[in-house]
Structure formats: C-alpha cells, structure tokens
Amino acid sequence: MTTSEKYVTGAYLVVLAVVLLYVILYSFKLSRLEREVAELTELAQRRRAA
C-alpha cells in the first residue's frame, strides 16, 4: 500500500466518521423533538378537555 493510498483511506474514514456522528446526533435531536411534541399534544388535549 502506497502512502497516497493510506491518505485516501484515512480521508474516507474521517468523512465516514463525521457523517456517522452527524446521523447519530440528528437522531437524538429528532427523538427529543418527538417527545416534546407528544408532551405538548397531551397538554393541549388536557386544556381542551378542561
């Protein structure tokens, strides 16, 4: 394996790690937003019933 092949492999690994980290963080944010929407929906339903 040449030096340039090592650099290309390293660059691909770094890009893959960054994309994977982005997807993980986005999924955590999305699940938190879903919980908040569910809480707001429940609160709105309680207010409407009262």
Can you offer a commentary on this structure?
This protein has one helix at 3-49. It has 50 residues and is mainly alpha-helical. The chain has a domain at 22-50.
Q: Flag low-confidence runs.
A: none
Structural class of the helices, strands and pairings?
mainly alpha
Shape: rod-shaped
What share of residues are in beta strands? Answer: under 5%
Please tell me the overall pLDDT.
Answer: 97
**Secondary-structure element string:** H
Main sheet specs? none
Distance between the termini: 72 Å
Summarize the amount of helix as a percent range: over 70%
Number of extended strands: 0
Number of helices, where a helix is a run of at least 4 consecutive DSSP H or I residues: 1
Cα-atom Rg, whole angstroms?
22 Å
Give a nutshell description of this structure:
This protein has 50 residues and is mostly helical.
Q: Which secondary structure elements does this structure contain, and how are they paired or packed?
A:
Blueprint: H1 3-49
Which key terms come to mind for this protein?
single chain, 50 residues, mainly alpha, rod-shaped
